[in-house]
Amino acid sequence: QVQLQESGGGSVQAGGSLRLSCAVSGVTITSAHMAWFRQAPGKEREGVARVNADGVSPIISTGVRDRFTISRDSAENTLYLQMTNLKPEDTAMYYCALKTTWAGGVWSGFDYWGQGTQVTVSS
User: What is the pLDDT of residues 102-111, one digit of tens each?
Assistant: First the structure.
């Protein structure tokens, strides 16, 4: 059974940093395509960062490209999202997601989701 558990969210002031973690069980992350999404109140969910199973050429959303980094630790079977220079507009629930096939587009087709971790950035 595949399970994803996010952690690392919290409240920070603008300009601060956070690192989100997504611990994965039931599948090896190097055999899966994984991504971070976020959803702010009243807004649609959006893809933030993605890394494919081969770990090559991660995709970062244009709006956060200079501030967010996606990485993974295969030994820990954990996905990370390093967020720097946070802005109030980054406030959202952040989710990690996983799929084991190439089905769907860059930000679709994910079969497994975590419960989310809240990030709140104050000005």
Answer: 888 899 999 9
**Cα–Cα distances in angstroms (integers) from residue 98 to residues 17, 21, 78, in the given order:** 24, 14, 12
pLDDT digit string, tens, across residues 79-104: 999 999 999 999 999 999 999 988 88
**DSSP secondary structure, 68-117, as one string:** EEEEEETTTTEEEEEE-S--GGG-EEEEEEEESS--S-TT----EE---E
Encoding tokens for residue 109? 């087709």
Closest by CA position to 4, among listed 29, 39, 41, 40? 29
- pLDDT of 102: 86
CA distance 30 to 33: 8
